[in-house]
Amino acid sequence: MTLIGCVDVGSTFTKLAVVDTETGTLAATASHPTTLDSDVLHGVDAAVAATGLKLDELRACSSAGGGLRLGVIGYEALVTAEAGYRVGMSAGAKVAHVTTGALTTAAVAELAAARPDVLLLVGGTDGGDTDTIVHNARKIAKSRLKVPVVVAGNAGATEEILGILEGRTAVACENVLPKIGALNPSSARLALRDVFLRHVIGGKKLSRGPRFASLVRGATPDIVLTAVELLDGDVVVADVGGATTDVYSVLTPDPEREAGVRGEVAGTLWRSRTVEGDLGVRWGAAGVVEAAVREKLISPEEETVLGLAAQARVANPAYLADDLTVDARLAELAITVALRRHARGERATPEGPYRGGKDLREVRLVIGSGGVLRTLPAGASDALLAAALADHAGGWPTPRAASRGVDTAYVLAAAGLLASDHPDTARQLLAAITT
């Protein structure tokens, strides 16, 4: 028996799944409040101790301390900057700021105010414009913004940019948009993961000493997307947290769209993630009610009742309800709105067209995740997902006939942590929530 502990260190709770990699089975699970006020390892070690098991290895992913905050610097809002934004999201980052065009001193100040952990410098298709990305590299080099830079723009400018950024942490990778409509996320995603591990985890002062950094394999959203990528066919995961609701989708590429018949100039990301920062069941509870009103999902009477309950949860995020009816309703509405947004995309301007949406009609499986769904009885969590998937009112392409599953044992993060060296075990874990 070989036991590997897979721990997800969140901003609120630290969740542990212990996996026997010889049998591919789950040996134990545990959770503990994340100990951000002291050292996150205290919560990790408490979760391990709660299992009563002696582990052969421990590995982790983390979104504590805000996870990976990314600043994107691009050439044009609807092309390379948008491509950079999508790649950053797929890499598990929280895109804290996007700036476009030639950087000015004021734009650099705005970027610095967003407190990014890493900058993603993009711009120009291969063989295209280099002036803007080189100018932006010079502005970064002269600024006081001393954070790592991932260079993922016009390949013809990379060598010059690395020279400009000499003395700083700068990592070169392939262009995220080598040609119009051809999104290339893999190289930048790996570079961002490496920078997160080498330079960001330690800088967040989550733990004293090097042990925690040595355990972490990636940002939690990046690791979860890695797990979702192991699943066969078109799949969606909706993860409801206290502050945000994340939607991950892995879709079969559409050759017609790839060919540009109805494609987007920033390219199509077939393995993607969106984060709804206003939708959660604690810090984001008021946002859920506001969004449900805008989407015409609740009556004025329910708005009043849910609004009061949401205010109580925002005021006390540690609130534990004896009756989960309100939490379940908030989670249902959060998933419904998050799926709508993921499917229809978003607007660059309040009156502009939606862009970046996903056609989810052929999705065969939707997995629900998050504390509320794990806490509810199995029948109730399945009914919650079913209600969210029954939302076909708006005309956006949401799943038509998907089966459902709930990650009750934290296996999504565990599968992602095991995917590289124990892929069969990871798939076996995922089978528990997909059959």
Rg estimate, integer Å: 21 Å
The averaged pLDDT comes out at 88
Report strand %.
15-25%
Poorly predicted runs are 257-263
In quaternary terms, these chains amount to: single chain
CATH topology group of the largest domain: Nucleotidyltransferase, domain 5
Helix and strand composition category: alpha/beta
Which CATH class of the largest domain is shown?
Alpha Beta
Number of strands: 17
For the largest beta sheet, what order do the strands appear in spatially? Answer: 3-2-1-4-10
User: What distance lies between the first and last C-alpha atoms, to the nearest angstrom?
Assistant: 25 Å
Number of domains: 3
Basic shape = globular
What is the count of helical runs? Answer: 16
* Reported CATH architecture of the largest domain: 2-Layer Sandwich
What's the helical proportion of residues?
25-40%
Quick tags:
38% helix; 5-stranded mixed β-sheet; 21% strand; 16 helices; alpha/beta; Rossmann fold; 5-stranded parallel β-sheet; Nucleotidyltransferase, domain 5; 3 domains; 435 residues; 17 strands
Describe the structure in your own words.
By secondary structure, the chain is an alpha/beta fold. It folds into 3 domains: 3-65, Nucleotidyltransferase, domain 5; 67-200, Rossmann fold, CATH 3.40.50.280; 220-408, Nucleotidyltransferase, domain 5 (2-Layer Sandwich), CATH 3.30.420. Helix content is 38%, strand content 21%. The protein is built from 16 helices and 17 strands. It has helices at 40-51, 80-90, 105-113, 131-142, 158-164, 186-200, 211-215, 220-228, 255-258, 285-294, 300-315, 325-344, 371-375, 378-389, 411-418, 423-434; strands spanning 3-9, 13-20, 25-33, 57-62, 68-74, 93-100, 118-121, 149-151, 170-172, 216-219, 235-240, 245-250, 271-276, 346-347, 354-355, 365-369, 403-406. The strands form 4 sheets. A 5-stranded mixed beta sheet has the order 3-2-1-4-10, with helices on both faces. A 5-stranded parallel beta sheet has the order 6-5-7-8-9, with helices on both faces. Strands 13-12-11-16-17 form a 5-stranded mixed beta sheet, sandwiched between helices. Helix 2 (80-90) links the parallel strand 5 (68-74) and strand 6 (93-100). Helix 8 crosses helix 15 (411-418) and helix 10 runs antiparallel to helix 11. It starts with a strand and ends with a helix.
